[in-house]
Amino acid sequence: MIDKRSFQIEFQPLGLRDQFPAGISLLDCARQAGFDLVSLCGGKGTCGRCKIQIVSGNVSELLQNEKDTLSAEELAKKYRLACQVYAESDLVVNVPAESLSAPQRLQVEGVEPVVALDPIIQGYTVSLSAPSLSDPRGDDERLFEALERQHGVICKSIDEEVLQSLSRSLRSLNWNISVTIRNTEIVSVDPVESRRLGMAVDLGTTKIAGYLVDLETAKTLSATGIMNPQISYGEDVVARLTRAQMSPQDASTLQAKSLEALATLSIELCQEADGARPDEIKEIVVAGNTAMHHLLLRLPVEQLIKAPHVPSVSQAIDIKARSVGLSVAPGAYVHLLPNIAGFVGGDHLAMLLAIKAWEAEAPLMAIDIGTNTEISLVMRGEITSVSCASGPAFEGAHISNGMRAAPGAIDHLLLADQQIQYHTIHGSKPAGICGSGIFDALAQLVLNGVIDQNGRMQGGHPRVRENKTGREFVIVSEEERNGGSAITITQEDVRELQLAKAAIRTGITVLLKEKELSDSDIDQVVVAGAFGSYLDISSAITVGMLPAIPLSRFRQVGNAAGMGAKAVLISKTARETVQKVAREIRYIELAVAPDFNKTFMQAISLR
Amino acid sequence: MIDKRSFQIEFQPLGLRDQFPAGISLLDCARQAGFDLVSLCGGKGTCGRCKIQIVSGNVSELLQNEKDTLSAEELAKKYRLACQVYAESDLVVNVPAESLSAPQRLQVEGVEPVVALDPIIQGYTVSLSAPSLSDPRGDDERLFEALERQHGVICKSIDEEVLQSLSRSLRSLNWNISVTIRNTEIVSVDPVESRRLGMAVDLGTTKIAGYLVDLETAKTLSATGIMNPQISYGEDVVARLTRAQMSPQDASTLQAKSLEALATLSIELCQEADGARPDEIKEIVVAGNTAMHHLLLRLPVEQLIKAPHVPSVSQAIDIKARSVGLSVAPGAYVHLLPNIAGFVGGDHLAMLLAIKAWEAEAPLMAIDIGTNTEISLVMRGEITSVSCASGPAFEGAHISNGMRAAPGAIDHLLLADQQIQYHTIHGSKPAGICGSGIFDALAQLVLNGVIDQNGRMQGGHPRVRENKTGREFVIVSEEERNGGSAITITQEDVRELQLAKAAIRTGITVLLKEKELSDSDIDQVVVAGAFGSYLDISSAITVGMLPAIPLSRFRQVGNAAGMGAKAVLISKTARETVQKVAREIRYIELAVAPDFNKTFMQAISLR
Lengths: 607, 607
Description:
Two copies of one chain form a homodimer. Chain A has 607 residues and is of the alpha/beta class. The model of chain A has no long low-confidence stretch (mean pLDDT 91). In chain A, strands 12-11-10-13-15-14 form a six-stranded mixed sheet, with helices on both faces. Among the domains of chain A are: 6-99, Ubiquitin-like (UB roll); 121-190, Ubiquitin-like (UB roll) (Roll); 197-336, Domain of unknown function (DUF4445) (Nucleotidyltransferase, domain 5). In chain A, helix 7 packs across helix 8. Helix content of chain A is 30%, strand content 25%. In chain A, a hairpin with a 4-residue loop joins strand 16 (364-368) and strand 17 (373-379). At the A-B interface, helix 4, strand 7 and helix 5 of A face helix 4, strand 7 and helix 5 of B.
């Protein structure tokens, strides 16, 4: 009897979803979906390299060779071998990075600001005299006194965990030590040859970038990116916040996932930097949006979800790394950048810092495009910010053949003479279309008259056809995919994109109106973030998302939030500046801006 | 067959040890030893009131009625019913306070200093405006701003745990709250009617005294004392420190025991103060000797045990109560007074504070008598301190019939016309002799010529007899105890007491010599501590422990350390003074004092 069932399978963190017939292994489903898992044994279930994790849904029974290959911990976490497992219902599947044959695109580079080395932690080499019957002072007192006498440094306290081991450390190191001080607190006591490192993290909703910095030289020793493991628990911030609000257990899981990611980063960054050890990390700086910030600290989120979207915490805060289970230097802190509003967080501030926004005299517009888009208008040192609910279309979600910027994603596209040319990430076979590709497609369809100004798809073009719900434009046909399903842009996709780009355009317009400026007054537009780096600015202008000003006025700065986090790690002055700026920024709630609805309706139109 | 074995059984925290024949229940052993356990059923094993805990040694098998009566947790902790259990080897038995028919003497009262109410925590009632779309500031920012505007108070941080619940608290309390601030940190957010209480603790080696204070009125709401549950793990500080050093597990147990005691105190104090709740406790102050301090914080102790006896931590420290598992207000701190030296701790400083020692112009001698005796000489604001290893004789240990100040202990004694008169605590039948009784006995024996100046016991007195190891003086004979063993002072006891009192006298002499003073120059002698309160000063002068100056120059101030801890709780100024004084005190190590050996040898003589 032939199994005629078929199931919807969602592969995360790739953001790929499709319908697959029953009876084919998840390894084959992945291939059909257009991406490859590592498979050294060719699907025999022996190499154990095609590990995937079943997040939800029912699958076929666990086989003996899977039990042999996977660890007890992996089995408990529902890891399976993709080549041995079959869907028995709709599934959500998590694909660990190490199982992917080609890595995802994880941008860590960005335009780096020049900041002077002046970290919040300072190190001193100290030689103490050993105690004697005529000098039996306490070990803490002895250390304080030596620091003051030898370096003129006045300390007031010692971290509790450092205290626990201080007496033993002093003796085992023969009274010659390296002391790390943060403000007036001793946070680490080490051998004199020990290094003082710091980790900066851009905690994004989708991607997390980490940087390991030598705080004695300001040199970046390593940089790496990982997917945010919270993705399997909700693609966008609202989904995750809602889960956290509904269930304390989910809130704990979400927190654990982000902490796990920070721990992974600290280990990977150390591995990449020859011989670095996590316990040499004396300070961590995290820049994230308000939601990521709150989930990381397991702060209440109910008031963040509901209007007026109030952060529980907006000031910068410092917590002990160990209080959230991070194994770095004993007394190390995690510094979280301040938040500006419920949907404008520390990552936006970090970006503004990285581009030194507040130094701009002529109007500067700084845009962080994402599921939520934050925009700031800077003019003569005054900063006004808005947040736009641009939605997950740029991440490929809610788009028929959308996917994240993973191998096989069409990221650029040109339509000329009814001929289509596209580029995929890593040159792989096309699997779907990611944000920048979607934007190019939209722009090309507009330019070729396939879509009118209102977004209506016209018939007549050879690549336009009718589907069940309306028209669609075929980018890669079934034949071109050897019988796989076609990659198309549907009328519904166009509507989704119009809403997304209108949200951003509305934000820009509201900010300009508020300062009585017009598009042409903008001296500079800074586009930040991974999506913003790959976005074709011309396409974005064509569809009316970005202002139609000369391309020379645009700057794509890459992961500026990460660079800003690094600046905050390296420089106490930068840290203080961010906190000062955070208090001065004026936040405008778009929903209550004058003429919001009218502005939005106008912004929907394509040019 | 008759069981002819006999076993040594030690009852703690009473400090009673004796030899008992096999085959009699521990309930009967207790009676023979001279104290009563609660026994409503008369030893049938049904009322469950004579609970005791087997700390070490082997006992008879657990019976069904014990399984029925004791909880699983109690069984796991080796609790048994005293009426049902028999010794099978030498034992150490812990007698919980609730099983004793008469309570132990636990002094909590003392001479209370007058300090102005000025606690480190301050409370403010704040009314906030609810957030709106046009005012969506973060909850933390809103609170900071209101505190500054309504009370002129500038806060800088909010305790992490308070932050976790801040957003919910503000909303559930309808934006009207009571805020507790410590320095510049918000440590608690409560309903406006909530109280601000504090707990002061004198963490003694043997006894722990606690005080619950209303920090808005400085009124003491309740006071209580409990035995230090560490006793079963070592009677004196050196025994406990050695255990902690030898085994990390024992160090953890010792820490857990003292934390357990603090938790018990907080609950009992609240029960005694009508309607008080532990979460209303916003600050805890602990004064203890250096060993108790280190064991409480699980600090390393190796350097404390070995010469030159160096404290790991000597400065005052503040730790979050929750970081050591105490359930009080979420952000409450435990403040530990500074230590002066390895064997002069925060309890001595608290005592000096309570008697306002540093205000003395004429020479003042402040003495804390205990297993370790701390003495300070104060003169024109200068304080010099020594520590004397007086040993546990005053607690009744190492004395043949010694015991702690529990019911049945002979605490005062008079020998006249060969007739002996004694007083027991609670007027119970005599069970042994406690510190003050031992001192009286020694003095009386000296005055009656039974002991010569060198401490040699003379024959000829009708109450003096020979025992296996030498002479002994019979206080209560076998006949007077109806066949129980006699209560005596042996020649060995006298030697033990001579060493103890010589240690103290040496400390006094060294301090005086150092300032070129003689006994008669002392303007005032303050004797603190429980033992010091019951000590007959005349007896102490008679045996040459205290200087022979007019009795009017002596002051017995009771539990001054507890009073000092309370002062530090009530007054920030007092707290700062203690820290300042701690840095200024000069500590002299007796072992390296000039002529130490000669001084000690002279001090051994009885007048």
